[in-house]
Write a structure and sequence with these properties.
Number of helices: 9
CATH class of the largest domain: Mainly Beta
Strand order of the largest sheet: 2-1-7-6-5-4-3
Distance between the termini: 39 Å
Mean pLDDT: 80
CATH superfamily of the largest domain: FAS1 domain
CATH topology of the largest domain: FAS1 domain
Helix content: 10-25%
């Protein structure tokens, strides 16, 4: 088993995606510790784009990075975990919508922004790959044209633009001026010799008496753990219960098995 990049190269159906990752400088990121969940468009998905789109993206690195990062979400999520989510925040900074209605009714893979997952749960050393039938596109109006990071509203984008990419101030060029002769150095009179320091007799100070020993009482303070997760109970289409644990950031970190008697629909 290899990392996400090695797995994509070995699959031989992600040639365009691998070339785009290399052009965008994201190879080291996707070979890193992660973990990452990648919605990976295959070569057929890139072929569905309008003519010239791929070449345009390869020439525009910030836009290319924005598109690729929009296909990546933090964590190592299976199809079952994704199907219990309504949306997910990408590393690009904008959300993708998740529609898992058919997952519960027909056991069909969930859709990402109305795009089908054709194959899922491809496990790698540093994450998970789910194959998409089309390429996802972020909202470029809310995307920084310099670094490709995306935002959920215009105020956040404007704040990023004002603070993240400010060039260093260069000195204002001035017209050439004739060299002005330097003024002569002033004559400094020799200072008189300093007087020898006065002889000061040292004064012996009486050492203070030691303070009586102080009794130190130590007491262990109990540590109270802060619970930040929420359990949610679900009821699926075959009348069985399951629950999952959702963290404060909205990410599902634990999923239970189904409970109850199975009843055919």
């Amino acid at each position: 088993m290899g990392d996400i990049v090695d797995t994509a190269v070995a699959a031989c159906c992600f040639n365009t995606l691998v070339a785009a990752v290399k052009a965008a400088g994201l190879v080291e990121t996707l070979k890193g510790k992660g973990p990452f969940t990648v919605f990976a468009p295959n070569d057929e998905a890139f072929a569905k784009l309008p003519a010239g789109t791929v070449d345009e993206l390869l020439k525009n690195v910030p836009k290319l990075r924005a598109v690729l990062m929009y296909h990546i979400i933090p964590g190592k999520l299976t199809i079952d975990e994704i199907s219990q989510m309504n949306s997910a925040m990408t590393v690009q900074g904008q959300e993708v919508r998740i529609d898992a209605h058919n997952w519960w009714l027909l056991r069909m893979n969930p859709q990402i922004n109305d795009v089908n997952i054709t194959s899922g749960d491809i496990v790698t050393d540093n994450g998970m790959i789910h194959v998409l039938s089309e390429v996802l596109m972020p909202n470029m109006e809310l995307t920084c044209p310099v670094c490709g990071m995306g935002f959920m509203n215009m105020d956040a984008l404007n704040l990023h633009t004002k603070t993240a990419h400010i060039p260093e101030k260069a000195p204002t060029p001035t017209p050439l001026m004739e060299k002005v002769p330097e003024p002569p150095m002033p004559v400094v009179e020799k200072m008189p010799e300093p007087m020898p320091p006065a002889l000061v007799m040292p004064v012996e100070e009486k050492a203070p008496e030691p303070l009586p020993p102080t009794e130190v009482i130590t007491e262990t303070t109990p540590v109270i753990a802060k619970v930040t997760g929420v359990f949610e109970i679900l009821y699926d289409h075959i009348c069985r219960f399951r629950f999952h644990l959702r963290a404060a950031n909205g990410q599902i970190i634990a999923v239970s098995q189904s409970y109850g008697l199975e009843r055919m629909p």
